[in-house]
Amino acid sequence: MTDQPMVRFDNVSKRYGALTVLDGLSLDIARGEKVSIIGPSGSGKTTVLRMLMTLETINDGVIWVEGEPLTHMDKGGKLVPANLGHIRRVRAKIGMVFQSFNLFPHMSAMANCIEAPMTVLGMKRADAEARAAELLDMVGLSQKKAHYPSQLSGGQQQRVAIARALAMRPKIMLFDEVTSALDPELVGEVLQVIRQIGREHDLTMLMVTHQMGFAKEFSDRVCFFYQGKICEQGPPSELFGAPKNERTRQFLRAVLEAG
Amino acid sequence: MWDWSFALEILPTLASAAIITIEATLIGFVIAALLGLALALVRIAIPWTAWPISVLVELIRSTPLLIQIFFLYFVFPKFGVVLDAFTAGVIAIGLHYAAYCSEVYRAGFDNIPRGQWEASIALNLPQWATFRDIIIPQVIPPIVPALGNYLVALFKETPLLSAIAVLELMQTAKIIGSDTFRYTEPMTLVGLFFLVMSLVSAALIRILERLLNRRTPR
Amino acid sequence: MGIRTLVGMLVAALAVIGLLATQTSYSLFLPGLLQGALLTIEIAVLGSVLAVVMGVLAALARLYGAAPLRWLATVYVEIFRGTSALVQLFWLFFVLPQFGLLMDAFTVAVLALGLNVGAYGSEVVRGAILAVAPGQWEASIALNMSRAQMLRRIILPQAFVAMIPPWGNLFIELLKSTALVSLITLTDLAFKAQQMNQSTLKTVPIFTLVLLIYLVMSLAITIGMRFLEQRASAGLSRGRAA
What we know:
The structure holds 3 protein chains of 3 kinds.
Chain A: E1 7-16, E2 19-29, E3 34-38, H1 45-52, E4 60-65, E5 68-69, E6 72-75, E7 78-81, H2 84-91, E8 94-97, H3 109-119, H4 125-138, H5 154-166, E9 172-176, H6 184-200, E10 204-208, H7 212-218, E11 221-226, E12 229-234, H8 236-241, H9 246-258
Chain B: H1 4-45, H2 50-62, H3 65-75, H4 85-110, H5 114-122, H6 127-157, H7 169-180, H8 184-215
Helix pairs in contact in B: 1-4, 1-6, 1-7, 1-8, 2-4, 3-4, 4-6, 5-6, 6-8, 7-8
Chain C: H1 3-21, H2 24-27, H3 30-64, H4 67-82, H5 85-95, H6 105-131, H7 134-142, H8 147-177, H9 189-200, H10 203-236
């Protein structure tokens, strides 16, 4: 199967008690595809990323990564909840960048980037440092390797977080509102880095964003979420240029007015 | 190993000793709560006392309660005041926990926004009325759980009174032990009594906390 | 209280001891009391080590252990927090021998105080671990670390700083509790004080010195923990003040 999707959500649901956050989500993402997820707050868009990163459990359905179930395993032809070993093996293909950076405050920028390659991948320090230096250079922070997170601006912290995630050589990168916590003048530098890795790496990218301009210019496909479902999806030119759904139109009108 | 009939036999003796323990707890806590409040109020009302009071509090909290009990029990008579062991012990416990309580009150007062004082001044309320009607009612509810925890802590320290031969629970259990050469039952019953009382009070404090939180939403 | 005030109090307490030592009515008692203080320190140090070990183990068991382990740790914490150090000390000293378990008083003392403070310590450790921002766990999962790696490399180093001040308070509680061991025949500082008091009836000089010696030890712990806290948090918040 050469056309096997990189990620497949197969009828996935997520509930918190009586509240249904995601309702039977089915979504395929192709290898190398850049997909943006937009929608009002509470529409379940962040939950999609968090489930894929295994930060949230799922109540129904199966998530497939390169044809392998993420949180399930095959047992005599039936899918049963997977053990941690299986989850960690599949999860290794995925990296994530968070809204609030989540850098490790007790480690320098360099230490943040070599921690997991050394402890998880078992890389030698010299190799891990060489790779991290390359990535920090790419995100424009070669001068800040020895700095601690508290000594960096929000934009710089987020760029370290991107380098840290890339250091694990993921095939899929998740970006969860990565510019929402930044001062407006720092948003550009982070988007620039994302643009660059989109060009230079053969990564599948999935991002939740409020930056409509960036979603329009950068992504191959945009999904509009509303009340736990994909309400409308398509190429950015169509979704932004000629939205078919009334909800999409309303949302875009409101966002553009605010922007 | 465990003799039920012996345990039942000593139960009434221990129960009457438990009353002494509870008396000591309640009187000691009244002293601690009132004296602690007085210390906190004096600190606020007379600014220069803040430093000596905090040094005094630090002194009391840095030294063992057992030594303080001995000190009061043996020193008072030197000055012609003869106190029985119960009174001296309870005063020592009350003083010790007053130091802890005063810090609780202080934190409570510190948490009242400046604006409350300023609004009272703007309304031209006299200082005493400000304390009584505006400040104290806001200070007390949030600190009730902390005071409750100190009440439980104080209760658990009353066995120290056995060291100056007050016939509370622990001393009674020790006497039973040395008379009968059986320590298992009296000591275990004492332990169970404290365990049950502490668990029950902890649960009560949690309930109280929830009630107070409901009354004073943030 | 500021570190300067604490150091000031320590210097003042030592000066007062020195001053009193020039008078024979006080200096008479000093050697015996210091001898007792040595045993007090020994018990306090060993008890503290046991308390830290028990605190960490019980916290990890309650947070991440399998059900029986979690249950065992909870029972341990509730029993030792629900009764007081003296009750535990007497129970171990008087009751265990009746079950044929003979331990010397010193071992009983270290065991009782260490287990008692360890139960409180487990709450400190647990609280500090739970207080680490959830984002730190999430980032560690996103980097595919194992649970042991997350704890050891990311969570515990951050929780450690938050644990220092409450552990300082617990060490002082433990030091103060050592006075109880005088009631099970150990010749610590409190025992010496009582013994001298009974034989000489010089209550005021003896207990003044004893209180001052305990004060010096408590202040030394407080000041030491403040320095440890400063050094540890410097690693966490480099440049935050700038």
